[in-house]
Structure formats: structure tokens, C-alpha cells
Amino acid sequence: MSMGKETHYPRGRINLVKMLGEGKITDLSIVEEPLNLCLGCRACETACPTGVEYGSILESARAALVKRKNFSFPVRLVRNTMFKKGFPIKNMMRFTGNSYWLYEKTELQKVMRKSNALKKLPFHLGEFEAIMPKAVSPKHRSHFSSFVKVKGERKYTIVFFTGCIMDVMFRRINELSIQLLAEAGCDIYIAEKQTCCGALYAHSGEMDDAKELAKKNITAFGLFSILANC
């Protein structure tokens, strides 16, 4: 156990959730930290000899915590802005990407980095900004085709999932992925009505919204094979 605590191990987390459900734990912070530090990779499931569905337990526990917790006004405002007005709305995500390009283009980025102002941002946003790739221009962003024809003989027809954050902040990776797929024998469609996959919602305990986004994507993609690089 790299964390040195039983509560930061799958078995310990499951026990905490059980005690919370039985009413033996009333302080949510005792459960919150161990759950928040879990990446949710579910690698523990492959190693479990009894097949415990840890992923389902983790998602259900996070959803239950969100329903019980009283968020402070700033945190509640940020969550509502991101989840209701941000990720699922393409125009808003496009605006975010274009704003980041402008932030780089006007050299405001250099000023912010030299002033160390980024270190004061909440939610580790400063650390995230430090590893961001170069933004694409609004003009370049508008030229994304809804269909890319195979280079050579067609072997597969697929729909490519662009994602929300992936498409806004890591657009070049999406483009290179599509080029590679075309070279590998794929006709690639970009479903226009696709939306956020809902992973960020599920990880944050907003399961009802995550399910609604999943339903929208099922409708958008139909029965095609789907590829994502997120």
C-alpha cells in the first residue's frame, strides 16, 4: 500500500462505505478523502479473487456523498457552471478553446507565469495550465470535417469520439488520431450530435447527469463502432 493506510486501499474503502451505509460513520470527510484519492482505474477488480465490483461501489458511494454534502457557495458555483453550462454545450467549449488561444496569442500567459499568479488558482488549475499543449486558432478549429475518407482500401467504418476537454485542449491529438486511423484503413465519421462522455460527472458523483449524457451519445452514435483517444 503506497499510501500507508488501510483506508486508502480498495478493501479499506469498501469497509468505509459499508460503515457509512450502516450509520456507523456520520462525518463525511472520513470517507471523502480516501474516495477522492482513488483514480477509479479498477485494476483492483482484475486482481480480486472473488470478483468484487469495486467500480460500482465507488461510483455509488461518490453519488451518495454528493447528495449528502453541503458545498460552499464558490464550490457549488464552479460545479454548476462546469456541469450545466460548460462541458455539455459545444459553443461554450469552443469559446473556452478560443479564449485559451487568445490567452496565449496576447502573451497574457507569459505575464501570468512570471507573476506567479497561476499558483494562487484553486483546484490545481495552475499546475494544469503548465502542461497544456499549444492551442489551435479559431480558424483552424472551424475546419474540422465531419467525415474523413480512408487512405487506400477501406477495412472499417467507425465513428470517432472527439470528447469535450480532449477536443478543446488537445485538439491536435484528435487530428493526428484521425489521420492515423485513415492510414490504417478506416472511413471516419464525426457524429455532430455527440456530447461530453459524462466521465467527469460520474467521477464527481453526478450520476444522474452522467446517465443523461450517455443516452444522448447512444442516440448520436447509433450502431457504429466507436473509437476514443481520451
In short:
The protein is of the alpha/beta class. It is 55% helix and 7% strand.
List the helices and strands and how they pair.
Layout: H1 10-21, H2 28-36, H3 43-47, H4 54-68, H5 73-85, H6 90-105, H7 108-115, H8 125-130, H9 138-141, E1 147-148, E2 156-161, H10 165-169, H11 171-183, E3 186-189, H12 199-203, H13 207-221, E4 225-228
Parallel strand pairs: 2-3, 2-4
Antiparallel strand pairs: 1-3
Helix pairs in contact: 1-2, 1-4
Question: What would you note in describing this structure?
Answer:
It contains 13 helices and 4 strands. The two termini are 28 Å apart. The mean pLDDT is 88. Helix 1 runs antiparallel to helix 2 and helix 1 crosses helix 4. It has 3 domains: 63 residues, no CATH class; 58 residues, no CATH class; 91 residues, no CATH class. It is globular and about 60 Å long. Helix content is 55%, strand content 7%. By secondary structure, it is α/β, with parallel strands linked by helices. It has a 4-stranded mixed β-sheet, covered by helices on one side.
**Number of strand elements:** 4
Rg, rounded, reads: 21 Å
Query: What count of helical segments does DSSP give?
Result: 13
Task: Give the termini separation.
Answer: 28 Å
Instruction: Kindly report the spatial arrangement of strands forming the biggest sheet.
Output: 1-3-2-4
Gross geometry: globular
Strand percentage: 5-15%
Overall domain count: 3
Largest sheet, strands/sense/barrel? 4 strands, mixed
Mean pLDDT: 88
Uncertain runs with pLDDT below 50, 5 residues or more? none
Order of helices and strands: HHHHHHHHHEEHHEHHE
Structural class: alpha/beta
Q: In which range does the helix fraction lie?
A: 40-55%
Keywords: 4Fe-4S, Iron, Iron-sulfur, Metal-binding, Repeat
Protein name: (Fe-S)-binding protein
Pfam families: CCG
Organism: Metabacillus rhizolycopersici
